[in-house]
Amino acid sequence: MPAAQPVIDDPPASNRALYRRFRAQRFAELIGQDPIVTTLRRAISGDRLAHAYLFVGPRGTGKTSTARILAKAINCTAIGSDGDPCDACPACVSIREGRALDVIEIDAASHGLVEDARDLVMRALTAPSELRRRVYIIDEVHMLSTHAFNALLKLIEEPPDHVVFILATTDTHKVPATIISRTQRHDFRRIGEATIIGKLTRICTAEGAEADEDALALVARLADGGMRDAESLLDQVLSFASGRLTLVDVREAVGLADEETIIELVNAYEAGDAPVALDCVASLADAGRDLAQIAAQAETEARRRLLASAADPVAARRLATILRALAEAAGIGAREGRARLILELLGIEIAAPAPVVTQAMPVAARAVPAPTPPAQTPSAQRRIAPAPATPPQSAPEPASAQAASASRGAGDVAELRARWAEVVERANPVIKPLLKECRPIARDGARLTLAFPEGREFMRSRISQRSGAIEILLGEMFGGSFAIECVASNLELEPLTVEQAVGAADDPEARALLEGVLKITGGELVDAPEVR
User: Fold this and answer.
1) How crowded is residue 478: how many other Cβ atoms within 10 Å of its Cβ?
2) What are the residues whose beta carbons fall under 8 Å from the beta carbon of 391, sequence distance 6 or more?
3) What is the largest CA-CA distance in the chain?
4) SS3 for 430?
5) Mean pLDDT for the stretch of residues 303-318
6) How many angstroms separate the Cα of 180 from the Cα of each of 169, 176, 185, 303, 529?
7) What is the pTM of this model?
8) What is the distance between the alpha carbons of residues 241 and 227, in angstroms, rounded to a whole number?
């Protein structure tokens, strides 16, 4: 590859970032990766080195640091009996200072073409100039092109005796299986918060800085298992704090809200109080808070409540809907700058629905008793449902019988299909057009299957993302609990109302057809105003 030169640590130590100044230089200084450290130490001390290694794991967990330490151990002239490099011999010092010409670090993102790979193959065939072995450290190896991988394939499988490859990646699924099978793979894990706090405490002591334990705990939690992220964040908040680092300093520097505000926001979501939720989001934005971080904080609080609400299915389902939206705001919303929009939409969509409408739909057919009506077509039977006769008064049903009736599923699929226009009318504006494009076709206990005509894949995927709000609406309209399942089907969408079935009212042919249907069924059209 073109002259991929090692990074030279030119700036004085005081001008370098904390994660560079406190980078591990020996296996004994690596934290959180004990199984990998043990394996590599024993391989060094037992002279069982592999010709190629693959380091896989999240960012900031020590992959590159481990690769440099391994390069030292391979070339150290005073290696310890435990396989740890001395970090004092000329080979170790030159590698630590980035002066070793035989330890070559390559960024695959900028050297990922096939021409770069061919150049690397040619250079690898030459003997090392200073050290015992030449070590190639290829960072973010998944960024290599397919042709570059193919060019390196044979070399990585059978490199010269003086060459060792160390490949590092955060996306192992993008690395070809032919490469993975030719390497010794080590998976780096996220580092525990207690381990991160311990190192942050040692850094503060070395820097002569004072920090509260809860402040360091928050830094460790925000790092999400990455030591480099924790050190970078500590560097930032130490610069922000004027004296002793406190929890308030960390929140202010990062743009977090206090716990009381987060609890108030999640309470508003859980209660379906849209005005309070929107006011809370607006006040946080006006205060300059990072709304992606706010979403992450709210996600943690909602997850805690979800795990504690397992005994209450209704509350758990509502919290699951809230949690999905908060996770979207903290993830995709943060990357695309839409965190505030998602938080505001959640406040609207999770709002408690209006009371159940018990009267007839705006346009419905009400049957009038007829002696012997002619045979009806199946479509007419589906679209014009006669109103049930008023049952005779009877004694109130016992409470136990009422509970048993409710447990039978309050609303089978036939009732759901008959009242689907009402469901669509009561849905919020976001999901109303989606519900118009599907129909309920089956119900098995709590599971309700909604069918979309073929070719409506986009609609089907969108409604799956909004299933929580639909399940809540159905539960409040029909009772019981619902779990939505969306499928593609070859069904043809039936009109939801009589007028939709026969066309516009001002169409003479459609009006004649409507009057004929009413004459056959003995019914009449009524205009029932919507009750709110």
Assistant:
1) 19
2) none
3) 109
4) coil
5) 88
6) 11, 7, 7, 36, 68
7) 0.62
8) 21
